[in-house]
Amino acid sequence: MRPTFFVLSLFLFTSLSGTAGATEIAVLKSAGLLYSEQPVVGFKAGLPATTSIKEYNLNGQLAEGRQIAKSLRASPPDLIFPVGLKAAMAAKLEIFDQPVVFCMVLNPEAHGLPAPNMIGIAVQLPAATQLAALRAVIPNRNRVGVLYDEERNGDFIRQAHRAAEQQGLELLAVAVQRQAVGQQAAHIALARLSGQHALVGVLQTPKSSQLALNLNSAEHVGLALPPEVIGMAGHLFEGPGAPAQESGQEGHSDLIP
Predict the structure, then answer these.
(1) How many CB atoms lie within 10 A of CB 123?
(2) DSSP state letter for 107
(3) Which residue in 90, 148, 181, 212 could disulfide with 65, CB within 3.0 to 4.6 Å?
(4) DSSP symbols for 183-234
(5) What is the mean pLDDT of residues 188-217?
(6) What is the DSSP code (8-state) at residue 75?
(7) Nearest residue to 87 via CA among 70, 74, 69, 75
(8) Per residue in 71-94, pLDDT tens?
(9) If pLDDT is split at 50, 70 and 90, which confidence band does 150 have?
(10) What is the mean pLDDT of residues 127-156?
């Protein structure tokens, strides 16, 4: 993290060093947890000693963060430094003109971050960097399997596909599906609404298989998989191409891999 904060500190120093008087910065922390405190320590260490810093703790409450951000509009600081998603969202929703630099936000694009007046530091490394590191660790492997959530990670996976092609890798990406468990919940709800009480107080087992098998890997390590185990799999990886499904299994496109 030190190099990241050095770059951030350099940006702040060069952009604010010409400001008349002491520079004022407001720090918004999503919660008083270690993940919020450590970046703040590094942030302070990289600023000039004359910088005036005031910290605000949202205590995990976005509404409280919005109230704090509104109060800052009355007497705005030179810059606002949100740490964590709720702090960044509070700044996005209430701060429109002052510069904002945020960090420690996972999947910021999914929340419309950064806004035009904001600069963010990504938590996740670019796909190309992650694939290059993986290639360095296992140089004799060319296929990479990924389970992902389309809503949260769809854009990242598309970037990963492009990066994989450039690096001579094959990316096998399987999206996690949640429709099956929703359908099961609908059946239970209809039964409950019709007056059936047998299911009350009982935790139900998912009816759809959540097992994924790599048949090539099993063969490589000398593992013989019984047909009934293969039949339980929602997704099968085999051959040089994309994931394949066992013939005769119905509805696997709706299963969680």
Answers:
(1) 11
(2) S
(3) 90
(4) HHHHHHHHHHHTT--TTTT-PPPPSS--EEEEHHHHHHTTPPPPHHHHHHEE
(5) 74
(6) S
(7) 69
(8) 999 999 999 999 999 999 999 999
(9) confident
(10) 87
Alpha carbon distance 163, 113 (integer Å): 23
Structure tokens at 176: 């996690």
Using the predicted structure, report yes or no on whether residue 192 has a pLDDT greater than 70: yes
Q: What are phi and psi of 73, to 5 degrees?
A: -65, -30
Comparing C-alpha atoms, which of 119, 131, 139, 120 is closest to residue 156? 131
What pLDDT score was predicted for residue 199? 63
Distances (CA, A) of 180 to 44, 45, 230, 250: 49, 50, 19, 12
Query: Which pTM value belongs to this model?
Result: 0.62
Angle between helices 62-74 and 85-94 (to 10 degrees): 40
Find where tokens 């960044």 sit.
Answer: 88
Listed in sequence order, the DSSP H helices in the chain are: 2-16, 34-45, 62-74, 85-94, 127-137, 150-166, 179-193, 215-220, 227-232
Name the residue among 239, 235, 109, 245 with its Cα closest to residue 177: 235
Among candidates 59, 58, 83, which has minimal Cα distance to 8?
Answer: 83
Pair of tokens at residue 54: 């005031």
Q: Give the model's pLDDT for residue 30.
A: 95
